[in-house]
Design a protein that fits this description.
Belongs to the AHA1 family. By secondary structure, the chain is of the alpha+beta class. Helix content is 29%, strand content 33%.
């Protein structure tokens, strides 16, 4: 796991087949189950935005909004979003987005999942460090969440 000021990189070895991990990432409803967002009835489609209400306690008043960049089945899913957009009084739409990339690699013992979020150097200076800190810790927790999710079936 490496970090710089512009990007967060995390990875985890999941003891599950690549097809199982891909389903947990690419199916919007299943993704929401472990990520903590209600994407009921939504799909991830390249070039389209998808929104859902956060279900994580204390953040239920927030809406997660991502624009899917690219989908390569069982290998790559990427989207853009506004990191750490947690203040409902702020219009984040005027800010640049970061790019989140999920990459899957099949290995002997399961699937290596790599998550890279980049573009923090473009975030306004007043909130850049906090967004980086929040998302760095957030991705650590989300990797634990997906590990539990794929292990459960």
């Amino acid at each position: 796991m490496t970090t710089s000021t512009d990007r967060i990189e995390k990875q985890i070895l999941l003891k599950a087949p690549r097809s199982r991990v891909w389903g947990a990432l690419s199916n919007a409803e299943e993704f929401g189950a472990w990520f903590g967002v209600n994407f009921s009835g939504k799909q991830f489609v390249a070039g389209q935005s998808v929104q859902g209400n956060i279900t994580y306690p204390g953040y239920e008043h927030l809406v997660m909004d991502v624009t899917v960049e690219r989908i390569e089945p069982e290998h790559h899913l990427s989207w853009r979003w506004h990191p750490a957009a947690v203040d409902v009084s702020v219009d984040y739409s005027v800010e640049p987005t970061t790019l989140v990339v999920f990459e899957l690699t099949e290995v002997d013992s399961g699937t290596l999942l790599r998550v890279v979020e980049s573009g923090f150097d473009q975030i306004p200076a007043a909130r850049r460090d906090e967004a980086f800190r929040m998302n760095s810790g957030g991705w650590e927790q989300q990797l634990v969440n997906i590990e539990k999710h794929v292990a459960a079936g």
